[in-house]
Amino acid sequence: MNIHGLKLFYQVATTGSFTKAAELLRISQPAVSSQIKKFEHEIGIQLFKQQGRGVVLTEFGEALAEKAKNLVTLEEHINSFIEDYRLAKAGTIHIVATYLPANFLIPKWAATFKGANEDVNLVITTTNTKDAFEQLIQYKADIAIYGGGILERPEEVEWEELFEDELWFVVAPDHPYANQYVSLADMMKEPFIMREEGSSMREHLFSLCQTYQVKPPKIALQFNGINETIRSVMAGYGANFISSLAVREYVDSKQLARVYVKDVHINHKIAICTRKNEKHSVLVQKFIETVKNSL
After folding, report:
1. Burial class (CB within 10 angstroms; exposed 0-12, middle 13-18, buried 19+) of 199
2. Burial class (CB in 10 A: 0-12, 13-18, 19+), 115
3. How far apart are CA 275 and CA 103, in angstroms?
4. How many CA atoms does the CB half-sphere of 40 hold within 13 Å?
5. pTM reported for the whole predicted model
6. Residues 6+ apart with CB under 8 A from 254
7. What is the pLDDT of residues 121-136, one digit of tens each?
8. First-residue to last-residue Cα distance in the chain
9. What pLDDT digit, counting tens, does each position of 220-277 carry?
10. Which of the 8 DSSP states describes residue 283?
11. Pairing of strands 192-195, 120-126
């Protein structure tokens, strides 16, 4: 069936006039009449009948016009969907993030973005550094937001640093090292509560020990989330090595205390990552701009 002919027929049916349909479509009236006759011949059923000086729909024509309405409405919806997506008004962005930005940065960024783009879906997955980059490289995510001290960046990843954050050693307020200056060797004798293997903070801590030739600490408790490690230290056991973003409010409220390790001052990077040599979609670019504008 000729879809163009069906749509032309629908215009004549809804306007009630070949002339009005021609004006609306910006073509000549004879051209409309000719194409309607061709469409009638194609389907083998009469659509219009003469009535006085004009024409009216046949019974079949009325039924077909009702069916055609659904097609035209769907076409308008699809065109609107395409335009919204092209202009970044709709669609889905898959974001994978390491635990630090997922817990302490992305909620604000996502809220700001959604406030201006309510029809765009944000699918956010939280995981460790290794898995975050794998998901990005394997096209399971559009953006990876990373927070940590990784030394080697995957070659396939485009890396844009947003800012640096200080790393702190923290203990419970009644710990003997609370608010004290100690050596790295003494600090490493404490039991540590850390995230699982593959987390950037754990790898950074062991790299620090290797750099200063100090025996790495015992990982006494291991969790898959940041908040669990913080709560365990607050409960009075062990130490943690963690971003100041995650624990600053607890230190300020004296629920945790810093330990100042002599000659060790470490920052880590917060970065937004995409696939190298790949043009960003309008949606992805819009989210990245939202993040940058919020800094």
Report:
1. buried
2. exposed
3. 23
4. 16
5. 0.69
6. 173
7. 999 999 988 899 999 9
8. 56
9. 999 988 889 999 999 999 999 999 999 999 999 999 999 999 988 888 889 999 999 9
10. H
11. unpaired
